[in-house]
Structures
1.
Amino acid sequence: MKIIVNGETHDVAVAPDMPLLWVLRDELKLTGTKYGCGIAQCGACTVHIDGVAVRSCQMPIGDLEGEVTTIEGLGQPETLHAVQEAWIKHQVAQCGYCQSGQIMAAASFLDTNPDPNDEDIDRAMSANLCRCGTYPRIREAVKTAASSLRGA
Amino acid sequence: MGALKTIARRTFLIGSAAIAGGVAFGIYKVKQDPANPLLETAKSGEAVFNPWVMIDGERITLITPHTDLGQGAESMQAALIAEELDLDFGQFETSVGVPAAAYWNTAMAGDAAPFKSTDDSFTAETTRSVMGGVFKLIGMQGTGGSSSVPDSFDKLRMAGAVARETLKAAVAKNWDVPVGELKTAEGTVILPDGTALKYTEVAALAAEIEPVEDVALRDPSEWRLIGSQMRRLDIVGKSTGALKYGIDLDIEGMVHATVKVNPRQGGVMNAYDASDAEKMFGVIKVLPVTNGVAVVAENTWYAFQAVDAISFDWGAAPYPAEQADHWLAVADSFTGERLDKVWREDGDPDAALSGDVVEAEYRAPYLAHAPLEPLNAVVKVTEEGVDIWVSHQIPRIAQQQVAAITGHETEQVKLHGQYAGGSFGHRLEFDNVRLAAEIANQMRGTPVKLTYSREEDFAHDYPRQISMARGRGAVKDGKVEAYDLSIASVSSSASQIGRIGMSMPGPDAQIPAGAWNLPYAVPNFRVSAYRVPELAPTSSWRSVGASSAGFFADCLLDELIHVAGADPLEERLRLCTHDLARKALEAVGEMSVWGGDLGPDRGRGVAFVNSFGVPCAEVVEVTNTPDGIKIDKVFVAAEVGTVVDPIAFDNQVKGGVVWALGHAMNCELTYADGIAEQSNYHAFEAMRMYQCPQIEVRGLENGDSVRGVGEPPVPPAAAALANAIFAATGKRLREMPFNKHIDFV
Amino acid sequence: MRKSIILAMALLSGVALASEQHGLVVNTPPEGSVTREAGLQAWERIHAVVSHPRCANCHTDERNLPMWSGSEYADAQPHGMNVHAGESRIGSETLACQACHVTSKRPNTVPHAAPHAGMDWRLAPVEFVWFGVDGPAICAQIRDPERNGGRDGAGLVEHITHDAEEKGFITWGFNPGAGREPAPGGMQAHLEDMIRWVAADMPCPED
């Protein structure tokens, strides 16, 4: 199977029902995408498929259509995405394990809703679990990122 | 290594040693006659050097042995060294170092620090309340009990100061200038003429002289880093997916494994049939492990799939199979025979409770830790030794546990500490390390990464203690006159250290933690603890005993204050005998504008608990909406002596509040047929963002002792929430999780 | 095997149309051969299906909240995680349903995972509200082309066979997998009931 991840084409020889999550982590060694629950409860595995947030633990590799972007593809330390910049500015992360998924969810959300209100943010981000309790900082970082993306 | 100084009476001695192209500053430990053969393996009289600061011609490395579980321990430790060493963030690297006795936890061991400047501010009261059980183990080199800051605060600043003064002395000698005319800044020693010599340039010279031990710590007015907002070292890595956690490691030649162990914790495996699993795609082999089976495969998912295809015949649980029987065992433990200790008795409670008595019974369930990174470990076993890559809160015991499995000497077991995706007490346990070692020992030469499925992680999450409390009290003339709280709990401390073959003599101070030390002068006051025989095995859960006992203790007081007809905050302040506690209560009163009008259908509650030496007061505000309770705002004031990093402090306090409220709202771990019924986050959700209140935090610096704040904000939160819900609805919630009795929106 | 059974059934009935694509047998009865009573009985069975949580949970009103109800839940409650499908009914305003409910024709095998189907997960259009609505009202809605997506009787039948081809939501409702309680009956029975109800001129209980 050929898949496109972060702009690169990969040929992967795995079972077609293997979730994208494990292809990314164990086959392509892109470990920024995290395993937390395997049942779409935590959101730690969130990636973009054609720019839209998807839980990669739920996506059988054999059913994948579209280009995948992972946290590594969103932005590197030298080429940060506005959402990553905001996450760094607000020092959101504690353990940080959920934050790849939070950032990917926020980036996709802000792409379709560039000027969200508090209620929108709570709707978009409540399917991503954070056990450390960074929610107050996530809220602030999403607002900062939105403002930055709007060029304000 | 540099010349060893004569080591006399002291076990530890600060010193320096030459390293390739440079110098290391640190401490020596002389192995004494082993007090416990399980814990000490080096030969008596042998001196071992362990560094805090290493400087060679290329780089400066600061050793940060407290495990970073997400609380920011790495940055905090580095900042304390850098403060005195005049380094800026960006000028050094960090390493967790090699687990060693020298990195003992002075705060938890309750002994003097290895430096001349000892921390004598750690009060006897708190030392007594935390000593024993698992905290004794953390004293070896451990992370837990909110002790990383108190352990490090003097010790690491001193390490930085010794390094600085020694570098200056070396420069003074070599350039023949008085040391008093030298300055240090930004990683350089500055000569009187303004020439800046990089530490890396003069490191080798420093190795040739005796380290300067007689140094004084800087006055707080000179602090550059402490108290200022620092950008934690891991923040970019954690915002870009670049930072590797234990679960992310990829060691050359590694295979992937998972396990399924009898979900009835401690039960045996009678039989299993892996004939289907062995044939599955990607499976390398199926191996027996203690009470279960491991599947080794080409990737994690193949291993997960295959282990689900194995059929098992599990033995019974060594505890009651059904949850109702656990509660019965707790309820049956309020007896003289089960009395662990009467922790405090003021006045004459029995006489004061002979008339009209207010009574209430409270419950706190088992709770999973469930950090988001499932348990994992990479282990490679060869004839020569063992390598373990794992995040662990007590790494030295992990090494010993593995050595016992593989038959190596503990010195042959190397543990490479990793970043953790949360812990909350979960990584105090050894199952994952032991199981990974069992698998790798059957595949010597091949590195094995063991990854738990989330379901396996829940099934083997040694939960928070289950406990109940019975409270009685009396009021007189609008005041609380008598308070009598009896707490019955299993001992998570005894359970935990029992799993490594040790016992805990004496009463368990965690059962009444946060209750017996209430700072109130109720004329007749008693707190008693009853030890419930072990049921399901339990463990330390963020804030440990105080997470339940603090809830019981404050809620009972709130009920009595209500019956007395007094104001919840004013009566607490009237009763308060402890200055730091009073200031915390006054602070949340001011922050929340206590007494101000909240509007219709709203309520506020206050609570106070002192745990881990931190007086912490909280006010919660709620709205009683038609669909349920909405938690609007939380105000927290916590007394920590010195706030080392305001951002890390704010993050820890808010996180503690979210942790406490989320679990109090909707989480419990229950057993059916001996198996935890909650297998994943769908049944153990805690707080999500839409439920997260606004949280306002104030760090108080009135006291002398410097404290950690990972745990102390947890115990008051559930109590303040219950008290607020009562204020808004008239309904007392005495059992967690509260959603058994009221809805939340 | 299955193909030969379908063929045999088609030969016996003489009027059956079997499709390999959807795997269902479409056996259209002669006009006027289904009584109103038989049609109402068919409706009752259809109602048992459409009011079942597997179906009704995603046929909700203008608040655009998917529901969690049924034997798996103690009380009916809105979908957790503060999920709002929005006016788009696909969640595109905040979080797309497809973020978790991916589009896949594979069986649902993982307990407690987000269920998936061969169609893009979404709430039914708001005029198709079934959750919390009584039987006669649902009946009136389903037969009203103004409120059923412009479908006549044949269109309603075709809706089911098309779903089977796509392994869509109706197919999923009868075979949700992973321990979820299925809607009563089965795809073939539901199709036959729909055909019967349509043949009886779509009677509703309160006509």
2.
Amino acid sequence: MGFAPLDPVLHNQLRLAVVSLLIAVDEADFNHLLDRTGATRGNLSVQLSKLKEAGYVEIIKGYKDNYPNTRCRLTKAGIAAFDAYVRAIKGYLGP
Amino acid sequence: MNSELTPQESLRLIEGMIGQARRSFSRMSFYFLLWGVLLIAAMVATYLLRYNTTGWQHGAPWGVAGVLGGLISAIHGAREGKREQVSNPMDTTIGWLWGSFVITMLLLIAFTVTGRADTTIVVTMLTGLPTFITGQIMRFRPLQLGGIIFWVAGGAMMLLNSALATLVLYCTAMVLGYILPGILLKHHEDGLRAA
């Protein structure tokens, strides 16, 4: 039995961390993702852009208390990709 | 935090992050403390004033506590909401649960004021709560609407005060609140099973 290929968009430490955080919430703002992942602003922005390009994450830019605020949420494609990734990973780890 | 991962590391990372996200609940203690103190005060006031009040005045301490608690909760909730960095589905569901409780409670208070004792009306109003919350948890709008229909039907039964109206409203609420969402849910489940 061959192993299912791992989605290269998700098979990256920071992108996987972001998607794993977002899978459990409706949406989270950029600073929350920054706190929880311990990433730098620049790196997080780059990885969020890649997730957005893949259609996995929706990025909503707005204002909160008159300051710019960026909120992120998983799209249906992102949820499906995460689900497939977890199933593939479990396949690698065996029964 | 950018390196390639082994499957074990991936799984550990996923579990860790999901665990962290699930701990991101809003702080609820404030509301329990506030309402606990206010409602004890209302109960004590009702007891102390029991010989000095008549009619609607009996309910005045509860009304004051309700309005005060509602205002403070709304102001506190709005402030907390601005600070929140995460919108958690559990927080949303808890909010809807308490909102549904308030709607049911207000309907029941209005009903008891009429002095009638009709179990059908009470049960119809109560049915709205779990129906609406089930729809909210399942993110299934027909059940959410079903819950609202039970509340509206209960309110209408109370206002119309007729056996025939109760019969028609109860059956209509059951068809729109249970049977129709049940049929739609069955189609949805059958579709999932076939996929």
3.
Amino acid sequence: MSTQTSIQTSEKPLGRDELAQLVARDIVPGSFVNLGIGQPTLVSNYLTEEQNITLHTENGMLGMGPAAEGEEIDGDLINAGKIPVTELPGASYFHHADSFAIMRGGHLDICVLGAFQVSATGDLANWHTGAPDAIPAVGGAMDLATGAKDVFVMMTLLTREGVSKLVEQCTYPLTGVGCVTRVYTDKAVFLTGPDGVTVRETFGCTFEEIQELVPLPLKKAE
Amino acid sequence: MLNFIDTVGEAVAGIKDGSTVMIGGFGNAGQPFELIDALMDCGAKDLTVVNNNAGQGDQGLALLIKEGRVRKMICSFPRQSDSWHFDAKFHAGEIELELVPQGNLAERIRAAGAGIGGFFTPTGYGTTLAEGKETRIIDGRGQVFETPIHADVALIKALKADGKGNLVYRKTARNFGPIMAAAAKHTIVQVSEIVPTGSLDPENVVTPGIYVNSVVRVGGSSAEQVA
């Protein structure tokens, strides 16, 4: 199936866990990482001890461990999704302003976020659908998007209606401008930057098929 | 002036109608439930409340909102699966919302306590939350001017206080406590334990007592208060 020039690395589109596994594999050893609420949280299941990754949670902790179970559950030890978690040896606690200084100050290597839309230039829309009756709630999304050195997005490539979420310009309200560096989807991995969008690899389809789905010019990774 | 107070009711008795009240906590961790209940009982109304959220379920801040005592919420994340009291007031047009990105909320509170008149931050630049605010390009990056959030009163929860009002917290329940303590004119702290002066290691004090005005002990260790 694969030829010298094919960038298709899987026969089928990736499931949520397979995608999480791929993101986990791509995280450089020794990184400080913040995993957003929802799908990005799955990434933690696939980080290995050898990678020596330190997880940050914006409610004030570095060195967050896996979700707490049974006796471990402690109401004073939760993550940003308000789920009880555990602490690893070497963990530290700090107040909210310090926690966001860690992001804003550029100390965090990677954050992984979900998205409604990502634009050709890496604009991110993930906090608000813009529906007039929706109560707006932003949390730490804007701080994470602008603060981390690399912002990875995890999402399905298409909406339920079959429309690409990778777009020329976001139509949903923005979370951050030009902040996304990589987009991991079920059908392909995209690298976004000032030079446009490059498809790194595809899953269950060819580069040409991805180009059919996405309404902006794509480049194929060398 | 530091006071050790016997009951939460006495601790909040001075809170006046129209006050701006900071309430610590992120989710249930660090939320001073007993002080919020006392604020409910004391009857103060027309309040502006600063908290990360806008109340959950049928307790604490959610009840204060339900009873129409909160005129305005300054928060980052009011919409949750169980924030029905805020939802109802908001849709009825009976509560004002100032939505602030969480890091800006924290830094604006910190700025108030530190005497900073405002700051430029990249967070929110180019978004609807920056509309109407002064912007500048600094080091090639768009930044938004944000102003401090001051408060008349802060209600926070810590693990222990010593006789000087020095505080230590517990795990992620620390969250907004230290910055709110500094940002308010009058800081009221509920603690699980009051320990003798000198028994906290000065190297480990998180909030120095200078920021604390009232301390009230509330029974039970915070570890037992799992919601």
